[in-house]
Amino acid sequence: MDLDIRQSANTCILKLKGPLKSGESVNHFNSAVQSALATGHICLILDLEGMPVVDSSGIGAIVNALRQSKKLGGDTRLVNPSPFAEKTFKMVGILSLFTVYTSEADALADCGS
After folding, report:
1. Which of 22, 31, 34, 83 is a Cys-bridge partner for 57, taking CB atoms 3.0 to 4.6 Å apart?
2. Tens of pLDDT along the chain (113 residues)?
């Protein structure tokens, strides 16, 4: 999995490209989230358009990002989840935990950046 990371003000945009599955991709994602939160970027925007597949470890990592950002007074928003990701998140009952946007610009505006 590739991860494009951009930061502005209190926001970190993580654009995932490829599957988010147990192992290296989840570890890479978790490290990026920890780094963003540690540097004061408490509003996380996860662009999931390029993430075709997610497994239980990937779902756990995304939910953990939400939990950690909220604990710091921020939030985690989703942009364009792939059809598979959206269906999977609905099936396991976590889609309703997130605000979902069709564009990165809308998610950014909502974060106040």
Report:
1. 22
2. 899 999 989 999 999 999 999 999 999 999 999 999 999 999 999 999 999 999 999 999 999 999 999 999 999 999 999 999 999 999 999 999 999 999 999 999 988 75
pTM equals: 0.96
| Number of domains into which the chain is organized | 1
Q: What is the CATH number of the domain that holds 16?
A: 3.30.750.24
Domain interval for residue 16: 2-111
Q: How far apart are CA 29 and CA 105, in angstroms?
A: 22
Exposed (0-12), middle (13-18) or buried (19+): which is 95, by Cβ within 10 Å?
Answer: middle
Q: How far apart are CA 65 and CA 94, in angstroms?
A: 13
Q: How far is residue 104's CA from residue 38's CA, in Å, rounded to a whole number?
A: 22
Count Cβ atoms below 10 Å from residue 77 Cβ, excluding itself. Answer: 24
